[in-house]
Amino acid sequence: MHKPSYYVINGITLYRLLIAPVLVYLIIAGNADVFKWLLPISFFTDLIDGYLARRYKVTSILGSRIDSVADDLTIVAAIVGVFVLKPAFVREQIVLIVIMLVLYLIQLISALIRYKKISSFHTYSAKVAAILQGVFLILIFLWPGLPAIFFYLAAISTLIDLAEEIVLVYLLPDWQTDVKGIYWLLKG
User: Which of 42, 77, 112 is the C-terminal boundary of a domain?
Assistant: First the structure.
């Protein structure tokens, strides 16, 4: 293991973990301008930390767990931003938002019951969903009149990912990280 790379990459992930409460504070404090510029930085660090960890072969179970928590906290901060700063959008899309929330809770509770910890599968569908969520959650704050198609693409990919992760929790008897997806699990 290359120790300096390990610390830098985990530092990038740690940044995302620590900035999430700051993002929520900025929303509550009414500082939407700083929030809308720090949020893309958080999503960018999400893109690069996993890639760098694999590239420099410094992946670890701890890093994977921290990454998953940081991912979730970044999404939560962005969603809080949507609820507080874009209430009309939330009212328009409440049914789909509730469906996603229910599936997320089913997946989370299933993993906690089965593994006694949150899942950290990092499936291909999760990566696609994360990219589309990030694009949507950045653009909703930066692009007035954002076309709804961005939300629907993110929502559909998220629903597919959550459904796959629920199935994976029931297929995998033991906690695993970096599971490509159901297809690869059944194929292998």
Answer: 77
97/183 same-domain check: yes
- The pTM score is 0.82
3-state secondary structure of 121: coil
Q: What is the pLDDT of residue 180?
A: 93
- Provide the domain limits for residue 32: 1-77
Q: Are residues 100 and 22 in the same domain?
A: no
Instruction: Pick the closest to residue 138 from 55, 60, 45, 53 (CA basis).
Output: 45
- Return the residue matching tokens 């507080």: 84
pLDDT tens digits along 143-174: 988 899 999 999 999 999 999 999 999 999 99
The two tokens of residue 120 are 């950290």
Q: Which residues of 43-56 are buried (b: 16+ CB within 10 A; e: fewer)?
A: bebbeebbebbeee
Answer yes or no: do 112 and 142 share one domain. Answer: yes
- For residues 90 and 182, membership in a common domain is answered with yes
What is the phi/psi pair of residue 91, to 5°?
-60, -40
Instruction: Classify residue 1 by burial, with Cβ atoms within 10 Å: 0-12, 13-18, 19+.
Output: exposed
